[in-house]
Amino acid sequence: MSTAKPDWLRVKAPQWERVGTVKEILRDLHLNTVCEEASCPNIGECFHAGTATFLIMGPACTRACPYCDIDFDKTPRGLDPTEPDRLAEAVYRLGLRHVVITSVNRDDLPDGGASQFAKCIHAIRQRMPQTTIEVLIPDFCGNRDALQTVIAAEPEVLNHNTETVPRLYRKVRPQGNYERSLNLLKLAREMAPRLYTKSGIMVGLGETESEIIAVMADLRRVNCDILTIGQYLQPSPKHLAVAEFIPPENFDRWRHLGEEMGFLQVVASPLTRSSYHAAEVQRLMSTYPR
Q1: Mean pLDDT on 96-108
Q2: pLDDT for position 1
Q3: Which residue, 243, 215, 213, 220, is CA-closest to 231?
Q4: Does residue 200 contact residue 229 with C-beta atoms inside 8 Å?
Q5: Taking burial as the number of CB atoms within 10 A of a residue's CB, which of 54, 145, 163, 244 is the most buried?
Q6: Is 50 exceeded by the pLDDT of residue 261?
Q7: Would the CA dihedral through 155, 140, 102, 203 be positive or negative?
Q8: In the prediction, which pLDDT does 235 show?
Q9: Which architecture, in CATH terms, is 11-287?
Q10: Edge-to-edge strand ranges of the sheet holding 132-136
């Protein structure tokens, strides 16, 4: 099967004036974004819209997942106490109605960085109280107290990606654990029933249709509300190769199936990423209030 990049993965050239403004703010405040660090294909569209997914405690990660373009570094390092306030300032300058905060894995920290997530949430609440907050968190190595720390800060949305199907975990996410990720999402809803939970998977890594559907069913069993499905793209020759480019009609089929399963929202397309059009959750929250 051909793995030449198809036409449907072409991205429109961004309007660099707006992109430049966002980049200037990020550089001025010394902030990282997953948009840049992970080579997201939607960076032009999102920066043009004045949005960004902030990457805290980075830019280097203590895990070396072979699909990810973020740098790897296991060297223990401290946290910057000014980061939460700088992040809140960026949210203010950009006028964000919805903000997504994610992080690298910080397995070198006792709580995996959960306290830094909480501090960032509190700082944004003080500066921009009307802004809704989504956190895209690591698995914290299964640390329940760390998860509780994040949830106690009361983000509106808690996202944790399952990334792929169980059979491919050893290849794609060797330091992750599928059941641990499912349990995190389950615990999150038990700890905070009003919380909206979210997860995402990549396709095109060699998974089967039945395996994708099984993951979707597993996520619904733990009451996951929002699902994202996107095409895996190889960041560089040293990363995992693409096994298959999935046609857009497959994503349409999975979106309809997910809605039938009971997901409140399914965002599925070749270029979908975890935070793609994340602000649409505000409409979801109005439609399905808790």
Answers
A1: 92
A2: 43
A3: 243
A4: yes
A5: 54
A6: yes
A7: negative
A8: 87
A9: Alpha-Beta Barrel (3.20)
A10: 32-33, 53-56, 98-103, 132-136, 157-159, 196-203, 226-231, 265-268
Predicted local confidence at residue 281, as pLDDT: 86
Sign of the CA dihedral running 265, 96, 274, 144? negative
- Distances from the Cα of 189 to the Cα of 114, 123, 151, 183, 196, angstroms: 17, 24, 10, 10, 8
CA dist., res. 70 & res. 52, Å (int): 16
Residue-level length of the chain? 290
Domain layout of the chain by residue ranges: 11-287
Q: Residue 98: what residue type?
A: H
Distance CA 187, CA 147 (A): 8
The torsion of the CA quartet 165, 135, 51, 88, rounded to 10 degrees, works out to -160
Residues above pLDDT 70, as percent of the chain:
89
**Rounded to an integer, what distance in angstroms lies between the CA atom of residue 204 and that of residue 189?**
30
Secondary structure of residue 39 in the 3-state scheme: coil
Whether pLDDT at 172 is above 70 = yes
Indicate if the pLDDT at residue 279 is higher than 60. yes
- Token pair listed for 96: 């964000």
